[in-house]
Design a protein that fits this description.
The complex is a heterodimer of chains A (304) and B (224). Chain A is of the alpha/beta class. Chain A has two domains: 2-174 and 212-237, Rossmann fold; 178-211 and 241-273 and 288-297, UDP-galactose 4-epimerase, domain 1 (Alpha-Beta Complex). Chain A has helices spanning 11-21, 63-70, 92-113, 145-158, 186-196, 215-227, 244-254, 278-283, 291-299; strands spanning 2-6, 28-33, 53-57, 75-78, 117-123, 133-134, 165-171, 173-175, 199-203, 209-214, 234-237, 240-243, 259-263, 273-274. In chain A, strands 3-2-1-4-5-7-11 form a seven-stranded parallel beta sheet, with helices on both faces. In chain A, strands 8-10-12 form a three-stranded mixed beta sheet. In chain A, strands 6-14 form a two-stranded parallel sheet. The radius of gyration of chain A is 19 Å and the shape is globular. Chain B has one domain: Rossmann fold. The chains are: A alpha/beta (304), B alpha/beta (224).
Chain lengths: 304, 224
């Protein structure tokens, strides 16, 4: 198969390109990205990647350039998005441009370029917040502008279902070492701050839940989705639900002298938990280990 | 119109089209695929099913509009051609990075509707449009047969139909409504410039808050 990955130089994209380049069923990967984060982890490194990868610097709003690449592919994995964690409520027009209209344009291009499988990375944030775990059958009620824009993107993707295989991935917070990792993601930020400041910051009283997934498991899941002829068009991608304070406790296993600062500790902030699909995760070959072991592994990647 | 006779309407439009078809003229119809657009598409599917149906895909439509277009295309066996701007969306932003629809809607309409339609008319001799006099002041003054500034024929076969006639026709052939109609959208165009019907505002929800009532297809691409 020939795959177009938008947002391929991002946190997930870089790791995914590496994983899929080792998949023998994949002939060609077009890694499409505008390098808006100026992250070059996909392009540089000591380990050489397969020759079957082509990098194209381009905007998803550049319909002409995008279509020229998409015509060469039968699978599209749409990762490109405007994300501004934790400030997901500023610049709503930019969220609209990229996450809604950008996705709408990609959908129209996919229809006309003969894409057979379309995988869209949406977000757990489309659910908003709640006290119970969200399932794929729950109605999304996004709170943040980011979540709203991702849901509007989903609405365009949904219209492709009659024409191709469609999978909408509502992905949890991603963590773990990667060549293009993000440090606005809470667990990665915890690890960075623990290592270099020996102090982490918790919002509210820290009892709020979030869903998480390790970057390696994200890649395994997508690799599995490529093979699958699933009837399920919505996948909740998470390997654990954790309270933020428990994540801090796990970090303390690795950094015993770690300090923590609570900001507005009088606040009990909202929770967001996804139902964990044990069968999906098992089939995808997820690696499951306690959070503190992940953090210890993360620590080995610091160069000093 | 004194009496609305659907069969006679079919015959009239068929006869009108015949004058151009006899000369092998290339004919197209444009459609925005709203609820009120479907009767004319149905007429065309009966009297001239081979002509091209042009859909101006601005890239800013509701997902429901794309779905409705496909549904109607299958239902009436239409040959739908999507027209798009040659200007990519990344170049459709002002100096502050804002899409033109949020800054200069006229220019947005020009890039995504008027210009692509004008370009497409290089390939056609006759353009059928479903404008009606009862829609707004601009259309009230229109004629059934007129020209584009480039000299191509414009044909407005249902110019004198009323909203009631549209309803009668839809009822007679059980034509489906646009899926957003039940949610309160009466006039549906591009999503950023469309709002639900507000009884306080007779504008039916397009370009709410502005004086703008037309996208340019029926003001710029018509001789006055």
């Amino acid at each position: 198969m020939n795959i177009l990955i938008t947002g391929a130089a991002g946190y997930i994209g870089t790791a995914l390109v590496e994983t899929l380049s080792r998949n023998t069923e994949v002939q060609h990967i077009i890694a499409y990205d505008n390098l808006s984060r100026e992250n070059l982890g996909l392009l540089f490194g000591s380990e050489k990647l397969s020759e079957k990868i082509t990098f194209v610097k381009g905007e998803i709003l550049d319909d002409k350039k995008l279509r020229a690449q998409m015509k060469k592919c039968d699978v599209c994995i749409h990762l490109a998005a405007e994300v501004s964690t934790p400030y997901a409520d500023v610049n709503h027009h930019l969220f609209e441009q990229i996450n809604h209209w950008g996705t709408a344009g990609i959908c129209t291009a996919a229809e006309e370029c003969g894409i057979q499988k379309f995988i869209y990375f949406s977000s757990a944030s489309v659910f908003g917040f709640g006290t119970e775990e969200f399932t794929a059958d729950d109605n999304p009620k996004p709170v943040s502008l980011y979540g709203k824009s991702k849901l509007r993107g989903e609405n365009h993707v949904n219209r492709l279902k009659d024409q191709m295989q469609v999978c909408i991935v509502r992905c949890a917070n991603v963590f773990g070492y990667g060549a293009s990792m993000r440090f606005d993601a809470v667990l990665n930020k915890f690890n960075f701050d623990a290592r270099f400041k020996n102090r982490i910051t918790l919002q509210g009283d820290g009892t709020q839940y979030r869903s998480f997934i390790h970057i390696d498991n994200v890649c395994k899941a997508v690799n599995g989705l490529l093979k699958e002829q699933s009837e399920e068009s919505i996948v909740l991608l998470a390997d654990r639900n954790e309270r933020i304070i428990d994540a801090a406790n796990a970090l303390e296993h690795v950094y015993p002298d770690l300090e923590r600062i609570f900001i507005s500790s009088h606040l009990q902030l909202n929770s967001l938990r996804l139902e964990i699909s044990e069968s999906f995760n098992q089939n995808a070959g997820f690696t499951m280990k306690p959070l503190h072991e992940h953090f210890a592994e993360f620590k080995t990647h610091f160069r000093f | 119109m004194i009496k609305f006779d659907i069969e006679k309407e079919h015959d009239r439009i068929r006869a009108d089209l015949q004058q151009w078809r006899a000369k092998n003229a290339k004919i197209c119809i444009s459609s925005s695929f709203q609820t009120h657009s479907i009767p004319l598409l149905h007429v065309i599917s009966k009297v001239a099913p081979d002509i091209d149906v042009l859909f101006l895909d601005t890239g800013f439509h509701f997902p429901e509009t794309y779905g409705f277009k496909d549904e109607i295309g299958r239902l009436l066996k239409l040959n739908i051609i999507s027209l798009r701007s040659n200007i990519p969306k990344i170049k459709q932003r002002n100096s502050e990075g804002v899409f033109y629809y949020a800054d200069d809607p006229d220019h947005c309409c020009f890039l995504n509707k008027t210009q692509p339609m004008n370009d497409a008319m290089q390939l056609y001799d006759v353009w059928i449009s479903g404008v009606r006099r009862d829609q707004n002041a601009n259309r009230k003054a229109m004629e059934s047969f007129t020209r584009t500034p480039g000299g191509k024929m414009r044909y407005h076969p249902i110019l004198d139909w009323s909203n009631k006639n549209i309803h009668q026709y839809r009822k007679a052939f059980k034509l489906p409504p646009h899926p957003l109609e039940k949610e309160g959208y009466l006039s549906i165009g591009c999503e950023p410039c469309t709002q639900k019907y507000n009884p306080q505002d007779a504008r039916e929800g397009r370009w709410a808050g502005m004086k703008k009532t037309e996208c340019g297809l029926h003001t710029d691409l018509i001789t006055k």
